[in-house]
């Protein structure tokens, strides 16, 4: 399949006689192959459509596949196909009737409004089950083309009738169709009769069909407790099934049925416990992962059910990292006073096991911290255990320990003394992670009165102030020294003076600067008042925001057996953009209809822009606001301490929900970018305009991407500077109307390969359209990634 | 509701791309490929959300299979469905790798089109699909040769042939001029052992997860009656104090399997679907489980900077039996200057080596007989003294470094903390808790005796000891 050229295929297609089955199949297969690879073979449309007049079903299938892919692009030509397909819908062979109807309904051509309803209606009452199955699904497609053709028509009634079809798959497809067509009304309407009819036929259905029926059953409210038991008895087999999707679907019915019967809840959970456990231990790591996520969710509601089985969730050597994490989460929920020590010992093994990735080791420490906060009985033992990790002198372990100790100490201030006793073992110079540093500094400021060396440790940080990159560490340092100053003035005065001097002259970050000035004024106005403010008594901490997830988990229980459980968030929070995107598609489809046979894509784009121009003003204002929010988010990335400082509160408002649940999610945000290490591009690159043009024409490896810019481009030269600082050099640029056009070039490091980009920025909409061309094909994706990271999202 | 089904090559090319609902414009292959190759996360989660699209993928023989959806559907459904598509393709193509996908993509499109219509799952059982599939399976010369040699191998040793070796397409075995159907059935009982010992050799946890997998190549609609062990109880041993048989904590069945007589007589009845499927999954209770191997580790210090690790494996099963491909491996600290491995017995088939680049000690025994004890001695030479801190910035730092002079007891503890767990891996043919006792096939229309390939074996699945 090297270098396919549509023209060759046309010749092949025309030269092969339609009687030579093998050869013709071969040609068609090549065309489909090229299509799959992403080569545009739509220019062959006429030839392929005319090849459709064959009786060979293999060819027909391939042609139908081709039509379904390209009909949208060639609306005028696809009329030809419609005729052929329409005829095939009346073929004597039921398989051809079915295939033709399936393809016809997939064409998405406006003319279909005329052509489609008749064959669908005929298909719904076809003798052959195969055709009926296809016809039922086709009603959804018809609905998508024009809602009124289906909604409120006799098709709905027909579909309800077909719930009693003799063919099991027709029944299932009818449910699927009704659910989608009536989605606004909450899907297919359900009464006792239909429900019982479907449940009685359960054994006829495929496992996927059963799942669909069980999804319906989950919505069904039984009339009596007896009926509820009857249904659950019927589903016993489905629950005990090797197919985890079926088993979870049955579990959901059990959970929903007993929603109002709290006395049964415990019993139901007991019933689910064993099969879910078996499925979670299965050999397919992906589906085990999905079941484990559900076990975690149920365990947050009823921790007792798997408490005796906690060892089943011990990690295996060959578990992938995502499985290891969810297993540790489950362990943290299952920890009780009885198994506390066993679990902590096991988790400690995971931290020190050199086979585990740093990510897993660090997660182990986080989970140990989480358990300790939950069950504070053995804090002293845990602290000793945590110190044993520091002794291993692995810097990421030390850093994790420091971060987690801070949380433990906030809840159990008594542990502070132990911490300072062990403190001498820490080699401060190895701590690089800003969060760990900040955590350490906070502890010194908060409890430094009992630790002789505290001012001098802080002094070491002040000495290093200028090389400190993280603004957050600097702010913590200011806070800590202020606090310690009021506790131990003589030792701290000089150090604090030095720090304030450094920080007030530090313009790298406005918050650091402001805070330093604020403290400085506070001190110079009224010493006693300042002391009162800085050392104000804090409320005792009982729970972290992170721990208070009960509400979230209750919400997730309503979305049991959906992706929300995997993501750990209600779906409407994940899918914020969904609405927007769907709208976009609708727009698109409308346009297709309006234009009818107009193929000109350029015009398409233009009209789109005009439409949007009216809204531009509004969206610009919004985007400015957005971008300032984004800034705050970025700044907060390295920040996990939800300090009780007034000043920080402002920022915390913008901390995304994920950050707030940090104890459950990734502890670590992305480390700062390393720009010095082996840059992917040459520092200097030279190319003259002629060869640029030549290259532009000659390079075949190209990709076009559309990016949404985070912030508005204020002026052209700044943007160009940004490009150049990222080793993307400008060949030519200019502004036309509201479009900024830039041609750039870069050279892949240590090679002679160039990468060229044509950048078109829509200044109003903040869209950046870029066509990348790379002489080295393998480099293209990497470069696009680099471009996105450094130019678009920065 | 599935939007797309895609098979992606290891280089990120689409081998198969089927859009069912045309509601996705994004280059999803590109997105998934970049997530898997350029993100810093090791083991990228197999399901994720981006820009309103949900992705679920599985990897199989270097290829990435994925589906996308705009709906908040069940993740287990996505994975199980992906698996069933994969199984069908395997059934129809026999072998499965990038080349077969390329050679048979017409066939695969046919299959996928019958299995999914506008995103809704349709019939996926091989038997139902067969009627609608017209493309013939294409195998290249090498694979045909493999097929034939497999057939020869089967004749040689009946017992050891695995159903993995059965790579015949469902349409039959290529014999001379055309495909010829063979009446065969393969039944595998596979038990995976997950065992965790503490550093003093005591058992922390043990699990035995089993499954019965069938590959059915019988024509017609025969009824299959499988008789497993008769003395089985499902549930906790606490509930049946005087019962002497096998305890299973749980059993799950294929959805069309009749298991009503299972607890009473160990018999399962089913009209098996064609091709590959899992008949049952089970968990053996800890009390009914046997541990074939014990692991013991001893440490001894020599001189100032030498540490000897002695690993002993004891087999606890009948003398006449043996496990194969036994391998013991563990990580040693990166700071070790020298690592020497010494075998204690004089069995020349064994090897023990230190793989320097991975800091891994690997000890291999091609065959481990019952009632035996084997050991290896690994000597680590460690750097003599702990390095001083490079720079001391003030008086305070000085106190740190003087205080952390380590005593020798501490050193051993520290070094032990950096030695990885002792991992044991093995295959163990004919070793399983559940056994196949009887197998009957009855076909109302004819009487025949199909070829039956039955295999029972255990496999290690994370069998290790902490140190």
From TrEMBL, chain A:
A Gene Ontology biological process term: vesicle-mediated transport
Keyword Disulfide bond: no
Organism lineage string: Eukaryota, Metamonada, Anaeramoebidae, Anaeramoeba
Location of the region described as Disordered in the Swiss-Prot/TrEMBL record: 578-633
Cellular component aspect of the GO annotation: clathrin adaptor complex; endomembrane system
Gene3D superfamilies associated with the record: Leucine-rich Repeat Variant, TATA-Binding Protein
Subcellular location: Endomembrane system
InterPro entries with a match to the protein in the record: AP_beta, AP_complex_bsu_1_2_4, ARM-like, ARM-type_fold, B-adaptin_app_sub_C, Clathrin/coatomer_adapt-like_N, Coatomer/calthrin_app_sub_C, TBP_dom_sf
UniProt entry keywords in alphabetical sequence: Membrane, Protein transport, Transport
Similarity field: Belongs to the adaptor complexes large subunit family.
Molecular function GO labels: clathrin binding
Protein name: AP complex subunit beta
Compositional bias segments (type: Acidic residues): 583-632
Pfam family, one: Adaptin_N
Chief localization: membrane
From TrEMBL, chain B:
Upper classification of the organism: Eukaryota, Metamonada, Anaeramoebidae, Anaeramoeba
Pfam family, one: Adap_comp_sub
Protein name according to UniProt: Ap-4 complex subunit mu-1
GO cellular component: clathrin adaptor complex; endomembrane system
Family listed: Belongs to the adaptor complexes medium subunit family.
GO biological process, one term: vesicle-mediated transport
Species assigned in the record: Anaeramoeba ignava
PANTHER family: AP COMPLEX SUBUNIT MU
Localization, UniProt: Endomembrane system
Record-annotated MHD domain positions: 182-466
InterPro entries: Adaptor_comp_med_subunit, AP2_Mu_C_sf, Clathrin_mu, Longin-like_dom_sf, MHD
């Amino acid at each position: 399949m090297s270098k396919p050229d549509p023209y060759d295929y046309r010749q092949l297609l025309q030269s092969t006689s339609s009687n030579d089955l093998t050869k013709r199949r071969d040609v068609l297969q090549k065309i489909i192959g090229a299509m799959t690879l992403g080569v545009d073979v739509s220019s062959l449309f006429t030839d392929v459509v005319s090849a459709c007049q064959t009786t060979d079903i293999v060819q027909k299938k391939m042609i139908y596949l081709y039509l379904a892919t390209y009909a949208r692009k060639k609306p005028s030509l696809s009329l030809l196909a419609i005729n052929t397909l329409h005829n095939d819908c009346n073929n004597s062979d039921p398989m051809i009737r079915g295939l033709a109807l399936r393809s016809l309904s997939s064409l998405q051509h406006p003319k279909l409004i005329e052509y489609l309803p008749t064959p669908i209606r005929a298909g719904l009452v076809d003798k052959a089950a195969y055709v009926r199955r296809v016809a039922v699904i086709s009603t959804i497609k018809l609905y998508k083309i024009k809602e009124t053709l289906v909604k409120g028509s006799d098709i709905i009634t027909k579909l309800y009738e077909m719930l009693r079809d003799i063919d099991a798959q027709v029944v299932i497809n009818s449910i699927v169709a009704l659910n989608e067509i009536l989605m606004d009304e909450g899907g297919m309407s359900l009464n006792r009769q239909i429900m019982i009819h479907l449940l009685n036929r359960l054994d006829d259905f495929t496992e996927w069909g059963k799942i669909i029926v069980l999804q319906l059953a989950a919505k069904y409210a039984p009339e009596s407790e007896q009926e509820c038991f009857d249904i659950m008895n019927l589903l016993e087999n489905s629950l005990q099934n090797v197919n985890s999707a079926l088993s979870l679907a049955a579990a959901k019915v059990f959970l929903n049925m007993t929603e109002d019967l709290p006395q049964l809840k415990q019993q139901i959970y007991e019933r689910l416990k064993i099969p879910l456990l078996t499925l979670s231990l299965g050999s397919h790591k992906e589906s085990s992962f999905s079941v484990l996520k559900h076990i975690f969710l149920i365990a947050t509601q009823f921790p007792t059910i798997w408490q005796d089985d906690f060892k089943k969730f011990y990690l295996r050597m060959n578990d992938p990292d995502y499985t290891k994490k969810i297993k540790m989460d489950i362990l943290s929920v299952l920890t009780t006073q009885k198994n506390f020590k066993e679990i902590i010992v096991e988790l400690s093994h995971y931290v020190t096991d050199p086979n585990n990735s740093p990510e897993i080791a660090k997660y182990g420490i986080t989970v140990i911290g989480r358990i300790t906060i939950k069950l504070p009985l053995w804090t002293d033992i845990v602290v000793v255990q945590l110190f044993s990790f520091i002794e291993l002198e692995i810097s990421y372990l030390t850093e994790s320990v420091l971060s987690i100790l801070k949380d433990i100490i906030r809840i159990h201030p008594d542990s502070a003394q132990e911490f300072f006793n062990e403190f001498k073992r820490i080699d401060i110079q190895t701590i690089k992670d800003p969060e760990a540093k900040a955590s350490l500094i906070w502890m010194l400021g908060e409890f430094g009165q009992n630790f002789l060396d505290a001012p001098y440790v802080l002094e070491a940080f002040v000495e290093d102030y200028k090389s400190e990159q993280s603004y957050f560490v600097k702010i913590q340092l200011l806070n800590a020294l202020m606090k310690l100053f009021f506790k131990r003035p003589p030792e701290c005065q000089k150090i604090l003076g030095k720090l304030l001097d450094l920080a007030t002259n530090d313009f790298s970050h406005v918050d650091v600067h402001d805070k330093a000035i604020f403290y400085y004024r506070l001190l110079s106005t009224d010493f006693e008042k300042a002391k009162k403010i800085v050392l104000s008594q804090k409320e005792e901490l009982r729970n972290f925001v992170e721990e208070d997830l009960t509400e979230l988990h209750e919400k997730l229980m309503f979305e049991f057996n959906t992706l929300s459980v995997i993501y750990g968030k209600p779906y409407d929070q994940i899918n914020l953009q969904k609405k927007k995107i769907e709208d976009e598609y609708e727009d698109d489809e409308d346009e297709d209809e309006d234009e009818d046979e107009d193929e000109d894509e350029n015009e398409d784009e233009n009209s789109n822009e005009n439409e949007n121009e009216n809204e531009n003003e509004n969206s610009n204002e919004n985007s400015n606001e957005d971008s300032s929010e984004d800034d705050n988010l970025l700044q907060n990335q390295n920040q996990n301490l939800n300090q009780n400082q007034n000043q920080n509160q402002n920022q915390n408002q913008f901390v995304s929900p994920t950050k707030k649940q940090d104890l459950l999610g990734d502890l670590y945000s992305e480390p700062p970018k390393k720009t010095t290490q082996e840059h992917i591009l040459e520092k200097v690159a030279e190319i003259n305009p002629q060869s640029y043009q030549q290259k532009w024409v000659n390079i075949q490896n190209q990709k076009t991407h559309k990016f949404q810019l985070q912030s508005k481009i204020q002026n052209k030269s700044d943007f160009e500077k940004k490009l150049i600082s990222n080793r993307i050099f400008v060949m030519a640029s200019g502004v036309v109307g509201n479009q900024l056009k830039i041609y750039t070039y870069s050279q892949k490091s240590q090679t002679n390969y160039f990468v060229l980009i044509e950048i078109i920025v829509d200044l109003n909409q903040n869209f950046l359209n870029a066509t990348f061309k790379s002489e080295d094909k393998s480099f293209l994706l990497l470069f696009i990634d680099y471009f996105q990271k450094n130019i678009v999202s920065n | 509701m599935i939007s797309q089904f895609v098979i992606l090559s290891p280089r990120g090319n689409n081998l198969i791309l089927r859009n069912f609902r045309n509601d996705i414009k994004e280059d999803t292959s590109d997105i998934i490929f970049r997530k898997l190759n350029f993100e810093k996360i090791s083991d990228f989660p197999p399901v994720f959300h981006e820009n309103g699209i949900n992705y679920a993928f599985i990897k199989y023989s270097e290829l990435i299979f994925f589906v996308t959806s705009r709906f908040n559907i069940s993740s287990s459904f996505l994975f199980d469905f992906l698996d069933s598509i994969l199984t069908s393709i395997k059934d129809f193509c026999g072998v499965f790798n990038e080349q077969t996908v390329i050679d048979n993509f017409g066939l695969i499109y046919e299959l996928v089109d019958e299995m999914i219509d506008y995103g809704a799952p349709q019939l996926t059982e091989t038997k139902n699909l067969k009627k609608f599939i017209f493309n013939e399976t294409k195998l290249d010369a090498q694979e045909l040769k493999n097929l034939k040699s497999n057939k020869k191998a089967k004749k040689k040793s009946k017992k050891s042939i695995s159903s993995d070796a059965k790579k015949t397409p469902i349409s039959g075995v290529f014999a001379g001029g055309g495909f010829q159907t063979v009446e065969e059935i393969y039944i595998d009982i596979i038990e995976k052992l997950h065992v965790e010992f503490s550093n003093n050799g005591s058992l922390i946890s043990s699990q035995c997860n089993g499954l019965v997998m069938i590959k059915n190549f019988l024509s017609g609609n025969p009824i299959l009656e499988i008789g497993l062990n008769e003395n089985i109880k499902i549930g906790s041993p606490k509930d049946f104090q005087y019962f002497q048989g096998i305890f299973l904590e749980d059993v799950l069945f294929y959805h069309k399997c009749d298991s009503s007589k299972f607890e009473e007589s160990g018999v399962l009845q089913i009209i098996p679907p064609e091709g590959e499927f899992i008949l049952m999954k089970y968990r053996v209770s800890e009390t009914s489980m046997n541990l074939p191997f014990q692991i013991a580790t001893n440490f001894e210090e020599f001189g100032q900077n030498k540490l000897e690790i002695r690993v002993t494996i004891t087999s606890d099963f009948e003398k006449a039996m043996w496990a194969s491909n036994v391998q013991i491996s563990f990580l040693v600290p990166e700071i070790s200057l020298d690592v020497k491995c010494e075998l204690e017995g004089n069995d020349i088939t064994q090897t023990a080596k230190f793989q320097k680049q991975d800091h891994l000690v690997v000890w291999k025994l091609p065959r481990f007989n019952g009632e035996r004890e084997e050991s290896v001695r690994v000597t680590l030479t460690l750097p003599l003294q702990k390095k001083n801190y490079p720079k001391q910035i003030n008086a305070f730092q000085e106190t740190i470094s003087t205080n952390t002079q380590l005593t020798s007891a501490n050193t051993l503890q520290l070094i032990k903390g950096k030695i990885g767990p002792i991992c044991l891996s093995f295959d163990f043919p004919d070793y399983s808790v559940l056994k196949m006792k009887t197998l009957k096939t009855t076909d109302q229309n004819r009487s025949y005796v199909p070829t039956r390939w039955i295999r029972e074996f255990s496999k290690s699945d994370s069998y290790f000891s902490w140190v």
